[in-house]
Design a protein that fits this description.
By secondary structure, the chain is of the alpha+beta class. The chain has 12 helices and 32 strands. The strands form 5 sheets. Strands 2, 3, 4, 5, 7, 8, 10, 11, 15 and 16 form a 10-stranded antiparallel sheet that branches. Strands 17-18-19-22-23-24-25-26 form an 8-stranded parallel β-barrel, surrounded by 4 helices. Strands 1, 6, 9, 12, 13 and 14 form a 6-stranded antiparallel sheet that branches. Helix 6 packs parallel to helix 7, helix 8 packs parallel to helix 9 and helix 9 runs parallel beside helix 10. The longest helix is centred in the C-terminal third of the chain and has 21 residues.
Amino acid sequence: PGSLDRLDGIPMLPGFGNGLSQAPALRAHRDGTQGVQEWVCQSYQQSDAEGVQTLLLHLVDATADIDAGLQVTLTLTLHKDTDLLSMRTSVQNTGKQTVQLDWLAAGTVPIAAPLSELGSFSGQWAHEYQWQRGPVPMAGWQQHNRHGRSSHEAPPACFLMTPQADDAEGEVIAAQLAWSGNHAFSLDRNEDGSFLLQAGEWLAPGEVRLAAGDRVQSPTLHVTWSKQGLNGASSNFHAFARRHVLRWPHGRMAPRPVHLNTWEAVYFDHDDATLRELAVQAAALGVERFVLDDGWFPGRPNDGSGLGDWWPDPVKYPQGLTPLIAHVLGLGMGFGLWVEPEMVNPNSELYRQHPDWALQSLGRTPQLGRNQLVLDISRPEVSEYLFEKLSTLLSGNAISYLKWDMNRDLAQAEDAQGRMAYGRQVKALYQLLARVRAAFPQVEIESCASGGGRMDLGVLQHTQRFWTSDNNDALSRVTIQSGATRLFPLEVLGAHVGPAPAHSTGRGQSIDFRGAVALFGHMGVEADVRKLDATEHSALARWIALYKEWRGVLHTGAFHQGQTANGVWWLVQTPRQCILGVYTTQAPSSQHHAPLRLPMLMGEAAWCLRLIGRAGQERARGQADTGWLETMQTSGLVLSGSELRVLGLPLLNMNPQSALIFSLTSDTV
C-alpha cells in the first residue's frame, strides 16, 4: 500500500509533520525550523465540583531537545447541568528561541460518520444568520473569518447532524467559539468516514510570537450533543448562556424593558423638542427605556465626523444631557445612550491630537470604513482615555444602559510597531468592557456591530444584549431571528418594531405583523412613534402589553422552532405555560393548512389554548371565522398533550406576512 508504516487513532492534539492524516491542531516553528512535533501526555489533573468536571492534560513534544521545548495544556470542562463541554488550549515556550504560532485550535472534536450533514450560517449586513444545511463535502469543510469581529458573514458556530435529524429529533453535535475576532473552523474527513472538527482563532501573519517563557491561550470552544434534534442543541446553548455566561446587574435578570431607540426616528437630527415629544409618545405606548442613538456629541451632523469626542454637543445640548435625561426619567422610563468607543473619525478633535492612536499600516493610505478608523485600544493611554470619557458620562448622568456599537471591520490592523494586532484588540475590548462593568455595575451594555456583526459567547460575558440586525423589516427578521435563536436565548436578542416601509429594504408590513415578530425577543421600537395614527398607536400598545405579560415565559422557558409549509413557528415552554407564534411568510399552495404538531409537549396534561394575537388576513372565502377559532378567542380550546403531539393544532390558512399567537396553559404537569 501507499501509506506510511505507522497507523494512528485520533489524538486529542494532532501534531504536524509525522505523517498523521489529521489536520494539525498546532502549527509552530522557530524561524522556519523545528516545525515537527510529537505530542505525548506527561501528566493530568482531574476535578469534580458543583456539577462541573474538569480535566487538564499536560502535553510535551517527545521529540524536541531542551532548547526547543513546547508545553501544551488542554483544558476540558464538562458542565453537567447543560450537557456542554468547554475546551481550550494553551501553549508555553519552554525553549530558548522565539516560537511563531501559525495556528492553535481551541479543541479537536471527533465526529462520528453518521453525522454527515453540516449546518452553519452565512450573511451580510442587514441579512444576518442565514441558515445553511447540506452534506459535508467529500473534501471536508473550512470557514475562515478575517473581518476582525465575529462578522455578519460567518458567525463562529456550526452544527453536525445525521441526514434524518430535524428540529425536534435526531442526533446533533453543535459548537460555538467564544471569541469576537478572526476565527477558523474546519472539518477533515477521515478514511473511515468520520470527521475531525477543529476551531480556533485565525492568526494573521506573525501575529503570535512567543519569547522564551511566554504563554498563549486560545479562546474557548463550547460543544454540545443532543438526540432531540437542533432544538435540543440550541436549548443546551441557551441554558449555558443563562447559567454560566450572562452576568446581570444585581446578580439576576430583571424583566427586560421595552426600548424606544431614536435611530430610525430622527437619525442625526437631534432637536430638544422633538426628542421630548418622542419620549412622551413612547411612554404613552408603554415603553420602559429611552435610548438616545448616534448624533448627540459634537461635530456629528452625519457619519463623517465626531467619533472619539465623547461629550455632549454644546449646540444641540447646551446644558448637557441632564435636562433630556430628567425628562425621560420623569416619564417613568430609564435612559440609555449610544456610543462607539473603539472608533475615531479623522475629522475629530481626538484624531487631530493623536493620529498615531489609530490602527493603520505605516506608509500606506489609511483604509476607511464608514468614514472611520479603529483605535488601538490595547495601548494603555487609549484605553484610559476611553474609560475616562465613559466614566464622566456615566457618573455625571443617570444612564443605565449603553448601546456599544462597532461599525466597521478591522483592516490594516497594525500597531505602532507594525505588528498585527487583531487578537490583542479583542482582548483589550474585553478588558475595557470589564473595567466599565466593574466601575458601573448597574449599567447594562448592548453589543452592536452594524447590527449582528459581533454576536458570540465571548462578548456576551461582558454584555447583556445583542442588536440582532440593523434590518427592522419584519419579514426579513423572521429568518434572521430564527437563525440567531439557534445559538442565543431570546432575552439577549434585540427585536424592534420598525417603521413601514422599512428603511433597510423599502418593504412594509402591518403594525400587527411587526409587533408579532418583535414579541419573540427583547422587544423594542425603532420608529417615529409621533407619526402613528390612532389605530396604529392602539395596536402597538397592545403588542407591548402582550410582551410585558409574557416576557417572564419568553425569557426563561425552553425555545423550540420549526417550519410549516408556508413559514415558521416559534414556541417557548415552561412547565405550565407556553407561548406559540406561527408566521406565514409566503403564499400558501393549498386550500387548507396542515395541523401543527408540537412534539415537545410530553405527557397527557390538558392544555387550554387561546388565540391572544393575530396579524394579517385569512386566506379563505367569506368572512366568517370557524367555530374553533371563536372558541379560542373566548373561553379557550382544551386539548391533551398527546392530541397536540400526534394530531396537531388546527391552523387557519393565512396570507403572507401574517401571524397567529397562541397561549397554552395547563393546571397539571
